[in-house]
Amino acid sequence: MELAVSHEDSQILLKDKNVLQESVIDKYRTAGQISQTALRYLINLINNIYHYKSIQRQLTISELCLLTDSFILTRLEQYYKNKVNERGIAIPTTISVDQVASGWCPEIDDDENIKKSNKEQFSNETSPFNSTVTGVLKPGDLVKITLGVHIDGYTSEISHTMVIYPVDASDMNNVKPTGPLLGGKADAIAAAHIAMETVTALLACALTPEKLPPSLGSNVTGSTIRNVVDTIASSYNCGIVPGSRVRRIRRFLAGQNEGIIAEREYKGVIWTESHEEAKLLANTEVKDISVITSNTPRVASAVPTDNFTVVKGEVYLIDLKFAPLENLSKRGLITLNTVDSFTGKSHDINQLVARSGSYIRDYSQSYQLKLKTSRQLLTKIDRQGVYPFKLSHLSDNFPIDLNSGNVDEELDLIKKDLRSLRLGMSEISNNYLCVETPIQIAKWVPWDHILKSNNPNGVLSYDATAALTLPGHEVPLPKLGISSLKLKQLIKSSKETLELPVVRECNAVVLCDSDISSTGKPELLRLTGGSKTCSPSWIHSKYELNSTDPTIQGIFDLMSLTKDKRFGISIRETQPMKEISNKNKNKNTANSDEMEM
Amino acid sequence: MKCDWHRYNLKRKVAQLPPVSESVFNDKMQQMISSNQTNNTTSKNSSGDAKLSKREQKRKEKEALLKKKRQLLETARQNILKAIEEQQKQAELNNVMTVEEPIPIANIIKDQQMEIEMKEEKGEEEEKEELTPDQLAEKLMKEKIANKVEIPINVCLFCNHNQREKHLSTFKDMDANIDHMFRCHGFYIPEQKYLVDKEGLIKYMAEKIGLGNVCLVCSYQGKNLEAVRNHMLAKRHCKIPYETLNEKLEISEFYDFTSTYSNYSKKSNDKETTVTINANNIPSNSEGNDNEDEWEDISSDDEEVEDKNEGEEEAEEDIPEEYLYNDGMALHLPTGIKVGHRSLQRYFNQSLKPEKILTEGQGTLVAADTRSFVTGFDKKIVQTQQRVWQSEVNDKKRNEKRSAKFINHQPHYRDQLLQ
């Protein structure tokens, strides 16, 4: 590698800067507030368009993404100006609908292309990707909104799933959904909400381990978290989508580079295909399974394992994705399939074809670019930071002035800029200086189809296009010897393969010890999410938690602890900012509207 | 008088050639007669050789003359210097301590030259009759002096033009003139900081051109002022050479480097007198200073420009003993300044792409990254592997060869069909 950082510097960057202090928590909190506000802004926009119908113009998904990004940046302008070197958008706003698991944030000039290359999905109303392709949401859609803000590298990310309801058009003054959401999607939403609250409470228990219900163990470890989430998922007949994680985040290392860099001292629980495989094989009596491991040398701390204990003073990202397993008679594997943008291939007509909107820079690659445009663009990218970005963020006309009347004109200007930016970007990404963040679709493949196949080459087959695999998890099914290429082929070949709708909830929490918390007792500061912004949608699930299970009993105990203000565990939520005008902005108002749960 | 020999010598004089003695002339005459006779008999082809040899002869003669002239100039200079030395020695004897200020050397030289000129003028008539080579040269000198064009200090050494005001050939003062020469002809005066007698230097140069008709840079000897000026303009020789020791010594009289080794002289009191007073020591000292001056300031990392300048001055005042260490490429001064050698100036002048400075975010990612990229082949391992493969191939071949020997190991031929 060309770049290197001295040992002392890396100590400062990785250790000292991550020690929680007043200033650090303040940055986290401000970032959390801005992301909460941005989420509320976007939810209000969607509600106004699809539920209240107060906005006549149907903004497409790409326009909604860009508007929210502009909103974040204009809000961010008011905080830490000239005080920190780096601040900005940590994740470009993505709006993934139903089966699209993550990463859907097309550029505004890409709408026509997507429609053109996905004619089938565009014309077919019942296609699972119809709303994704048209950019217009439909009643019954699960809309996963993901966004993030960082100030000086202290990152808060948020992800929330909202539901588009059919509304009763008769009474426009009192708009109400015609009914609750039912079926599999409702199960997944319920499971995600409960799992999120439980894991938050569980992490809060890490501050006072003595309060942890005995059925969950004595310490909050990785396996405790996995056990709890798995139990909730199975009791709501849901599967956990690979890519879900509960991980520690650090300054500038908020999971945005996962799969690109092999992060030192990775601490977190991740859910991958191999864990589903392990669960399947736990019930069998097969003994002579040779585990395939790739023999690339790697640092042990970079490989995620459950063998860790959550301690105070850390910041965690809880990113959970659930997929309902409704109407599935067989057991199967939930996996992710990356969408590509190759047109003209003899592909399945129902396959989604799109290119990703956001990119992330890989700083370990270096290449002398030939085009002047690309060199200029790379300078801009390097200045922009280490977080994923969209090309429109690099345009001179970004951010859009949301209060001015002519948003359309500004969008057109950005569209024009995008053309030259794309020219430069093609050379940059062709030389691996930037990596596209993938658009992923959740797929379900029955196990019997996988078990019937064999893959003699196993680990030797290498998938160059495999998106963002974590170190140690390059082979999706190591015990069965199914490589990533083989799995891709299996997904394609099986007629029973299904796409599953996905629900995603993602929050960031800070574990403050008593010496830095405002109340003087150890408390969990919830940067994003919570009852104010991420209130669950109106759903009815036919499943409920079985209270005889000891783990579920422990979960109930946990929830009652959060209610108990005196002897329980304290969780403090960061609230979105009030709609303050630019004149009387001050931080005190932002602080005062925090309240205890 | 009025014999052939005299006429011949007159012609030679017109051609700016030295006269020949009577015996030489007679020899030449006889040669000419014989060659004329042979020319009549032989073909005309041979005449080319004779011409060529003649031309060569002429050239050789010219060279010899030039050499003589140089020697003369040199001896004159030596005389001057000797005279100065003596004068100074006397002064030294008179009082050692009082003589602190630099002696106006140029003036002394001038006086000496004037004396010599006077002497020459006196003896002119006598010399005309005796025409030994030495005296001839002296005569030439006199001619030169007669031809001498005085270039005043406010007139350009190389041209007669005033660029600003075309109708004027003079400048309002010497500095304007120097400025003109620097701008138009690239006439750069080295080490201006230590130049004490600028006027003297310019006058010396003017004399070199106007009197000696010699190019400043090369050994070109012009017939007259116009010729040497044209040469210098055409060859771009309008500069003072300041590279070799001799060149530096030539104009060292106009410089005073004593300020640079004032510390040094204070420390070693016994050397003080020689350093400050003895004019002969100036060249050697100036050479030492030159060596020191050749060190240039490379970089002082985050200091401001003012600090840097101060430091530079300090660096120049510092004597070489005061540096911390010399790593062969740079002197490390106690002030933290690194002084690079002039020979590496071209590298210091390069404006290279600045080193990439990582932002905190990039640094964090780089620090946290544990990826190991594919390294290139290790040459040694590849070589040993290749050797192993080669020996395997060789073994196999040899074994095959050996086994082939025993394929047909039957003492008698047996037809398979008859078995």
Automatic annotation (TrEMBL), chain A:
Peptidase M24 domain: from which residue to which, for each copy?
Answer: 28-167
A Gene Ontology MF term for this entry? Answer: metallopeptidase activity
Which one Pfam family would you cite for this protein? Peptidase_M24
**Annotated spans, Disordered:** 573-597
InterPro entries (alphabetical): Creatinase/aminopeptidase-like, PA2G4/ARX1, Pept_M24, WH-like_DNA-bd_sf
Where, subcellularly, is it found?
Answer: Cytoplasm; Nucleus
Cited SUPFAM superfamilies: Creatinase/aminopeptidase
Domain of life of the source = Eukaryota
Q: List GO terms (cellular component aspect).
A: cytoplasm; nucleus
Q: Which UniProt keywords apply?
A: Cytoplasm, Hydrolase, Metal-binding, Metalloprotease, Nucleus, Protease
An annotated GO BP: proteolysis
What is the role of this chain?
Answer: Probable metalloprotease involved in proper assembly of pre-ribosomal particles during the biogenesis of the 60S ribosomal subunit. Accompanies the pre-60S particles to the cytoplasm.
Member of which family?
Answer: Belongs to the peptidase M24 family.
Any idea what this protein is called?
A: Probable metalloprotease ARX1
What is the native source organism of this protein? Arxiozyma heterogenica
TrEMBL record, chain B:
Q: Where is the ZN622/Rei1/Reh1 zinc finger C2H2-type domain?
A: 156-261
Source species = Arxiozyma heterogenica
Region (Disordered), start-end ranges:
34-62, 266-319
Q: What PANTHER family does the annotation carry?
A: CYTOPLASMIC 60S SUBUNIT BIOGENESIS FACTOR REI1, ZINC FINGER PROTEIN 622
User: Where does the record place Low complexity bias?
Assistant: 34-47
Q: Which GO terms describe its cellular component?
A: preribosome, large subunit precursor
Locations of Acidic residues compositional bias? 289-319
UniProt cross-references to InterPro entries, sorted A to Z: ZN622/Rei1/Reh1_Znf-C2H2, Znf622/Rei1/Reh1
Taxonomic superkingdom: Eukaryota
Q: What is this protein called?
A: ZN622/Rei1/Reh1 zinc finger C2H2-type domain-containing protein
Composition bias, kind Polar residues: at what positions?
A: 274-288
In this chain, composition skew of type Basic and acidic residues spans: 51-62
Q: Name one Pfam family in it.
A: zf-C2H2_2
Per the record, the GO terms for biological process are: ribosomal large subunit biogenesis
